Amino acid sequence: MLYAVIMAGGSGTRLWPLSRRGQPKQALKLIGERTMFQHSVDRLAPLFPPERILVVTSAAMADLLRPQTPGLPAANFISEPEGRDSAPAAGLAAINLLQHDPDAIMVMLTADHYILDTEQFRSALSAAAQVAAAGTIVTLGIRPTYPATGFGYVSFGEAWVIENGFRVYRSAGFTEKPDLATAVRFLEGGRHVWNSGMFVWRASRLMDEFARQLPDIHAALEQIGQALDTPQAGDVLRREWSNVRRISLDYGIMEHADNVAVIPVEVGWSDIGSWASLIEVLPADESGNAVTGEFVAVDSHNCLVRSEGKLVAAIGVDDLVIVDTPDALLVCRRDRAQDVKEVVNRLTAQGKPVYL
Amino acid sequence: MLYAVIMAGGSGTRLWPLSRRGQPKQALKLIGERTMFQHSVDRLAPLFPPERILVVTSAAMADLLRPQTPGLPAANFISEPEGRDSAPAAGLAAINLLQHDPDAIMVMLTADHYILDTEQFRSALSAAAQVAAAGTIVTLGIRPTYPATGFGYVSFGEAWVIENGFRVYRSAGFTEKPDLATAVRFLEGGRHVWNSGMFVWRASRLMDEFARQLPDIHAALEQIGQALDTPQAGDVLRREWSNVRRISLDYGIMEHADNVAVIPVEVGWSDIGSWASLIEVLPADESGNAVTGEFVAVDSHNCLVRSEGKLVAAIGVDDLVIVDTPDALLVCRRDRAQDVKEVVNRLTAQGKPVYL
């Protein structure tokens, strides 16, 4: 059977002051009236019944997210005792699936990315599931639209097969975030896609990779798996997890995995990694302003404006991000949106956690 | 005796969203911890005992301002039943003074202007009072620092006398707000000063000008004066005031007054007519930012930032006005501060008086 596993444990303040340590991106209504997590579940609906959608996250985050998706069984939220990055989280999902379905094929997704063309996205997942059923690890790659230095890349050679209308390539390797010159070369060459973090594999196939590449984590996962559905499950999870090291899927598994394929997709994907990238996916008015809340614009263009119950007036300003929250206000040039982290750093250094 | 009369009836939204119809500029703490009205009273203290400082305003404004100056006798707040512009307000103050002091010399001041060099200001008032004692109407003129088109001007010829170290000139005429070319000529010629709205005269001398130039208003003021200290005072004031027309001192009295002198002063005067002019008089940090509230600046310069209990973060922005209030936020390019009125116009047109 095919299952979706949504990794929802991320935290971050790249969308400060809206995103906070306790209120990360996936919990926010950034686009329309649904949170990023809700969008992530919504777009799976036609392909996955709710009982086959799992969420891996922390206990605190599960409490925050569970009420957002009343249709998902509460038991489908798998809580990590502590965050250990993406590889252990994927392994934890895999052993849970294998407990009841040795043939489980799992689609690994993130809770805080945006996809505009959800129909094309589901078609790509179906194609990937077909390929993964035969034992291949499949990654969905995003056709780059600019020379991004903030993403990893996957390179590929000649087309291997065509599945469900999608060209499937054998992966020629994973590359970590490149410098700008390399990114330009990747973009121009046409043989690289962004690593979206969306993978499809048999759960048993992932466990084999753990056994080969990360045997210590594999052993811990085995212990956890054997205790599942017993009264000791929670104790064993906490005990084993405390010794599991932090490691990412890309670094721990994908860079040296056997038999990996890549399906380049054009689905209007965005990681919403900053206010600037959020502007790109939001509808704008005739002046190019993307507005949430009451707004009066005098000669102001291409701004992102968010407020909660407050009137915002802008006069003679272009390309600004204006985000108002009850305790903090951000006014930021659009092309400096990545420097929100500098504000967060200063607030941390100044000992002002109330704003973080 | 010398009296100060502060005209405090003005309303306006040029400092929106901080200034509102019910919360005009004089009631706001724009500079330091004192309101503009408090500054106006404070700077008089060494020259005027509290009992000789009068305030002319509306009943509603008196209720707002009286608690700000507990040292002033409550009876010194003279309430106009309705605003009738500056000439009737000055006449109302004059008849109140003449009731108890036929020799009263009155200094007419405004409640919402700022003066940096208060010592020089008081010296100029003393000089003006000396000149006014002999029957001359004296206006304090502000040496222009740029070709302003938003102020009236007073022209003058050769120096007439020197009083208390100040050159006193005979006025050669009042000019209403000029166009830019004229303002440039005024600035370069050196024979024009801004009409600050600060006048010094004998109260009886002002009444003579009313009798000659505005006999209808003079008659009303006489009626009001005769009823002062009687049980009918309030009724007579309301009755007469309802027929008094709106007219400014400049237009109704000064343009055709006899025997007018002007004392040019350099006292760091500002009418704080917009957020841009407020920036000029506020102390700035090393990045040129004038800040009220908690502020984190990343590569941001020459901004005016005001918030009430909210953290403001700015990234990569220069020359912005950022003013946050509980229900409205303004983000405005500094050189577009005069267009705040456009926002106010739109809010009025949209039927949103809650923000005005």
Keywords:
homodimer; 356 residues; alpha/beta; Spore Coat Polysaccharide Biosynthesis Protein SpsA, Chain A; 2 domains; five-stranded mixed β-barrel; four-stranded mixed beta sheet; 11 helices; 31% helix; globular
Radius of gyration of chain A over alpha carbons? 21 Å
CATH architecture of the largest domain in chain A: Alpha-Beta Complex
Largest sheet of chain A: 5 strands, mixed, barrel
Structural class of chain A, by secondary structure, is alpha/beta
Looking at the structure, what is the overall shape of chain A? globular
Compact overview of the structure:
In chain A, 31% of the residues lie in helices and 27% in strands. Chain A has 11 helices and 17 strands.
